[in-house]
Design goal:
The chain is built from 5 helices and no strands. By secondary structure, it is an all-alpha fold.
């Protein structure tokens, strides 16, 4: 029984191409994530987080600063991670601020 290598080589080639494309998409600068983080911090500030959730807002700003540094170092995966953390912390700050303001009414 003769086994053909062509289907195996085609499969390996297709798998390699898919991995290459997936990697290429992940290694670009996290432009959208950085923008989302900045926007979330601005919304948190507007919601009064500086007064009602200062620690959470500070954490968001620290993550954003770290993301900016990593972006300038072209460490895009790490910058993306920190930008996502900044957005999450900013959302937490906004929510906490709104909750505290609602309690005080």
């Amino acid at each position: 029984m003769k086994l053909s290598l062509r289907p195996i080589l085609l499969f390996i080639g297709a798998l390699f191409a898919t991995l290459l494309l997936a990697t290429a998409c992940e290694t670009g600068p996290p432009v959208q994530e950085m923008s989302d983080a900045r926007q979330a911090i601005a919304v948190a500030r507007e919601a009064g987080a500086e007064d009602h959730a200062a620690a959470e807002l500070f954490a968001a700003e620290e993550y954003l600063h770290s993301a900016e540094q990593k972006l300038s170092d072209q460490a895009y995966a790490d910058a993306r991670h920190d930008a996502l953390q900044a957005k999450s912390k900013a959302q937490d700050a906004r929510q906490l601020s709104e909750e505290k303001q609602a309690e005080n009414k």
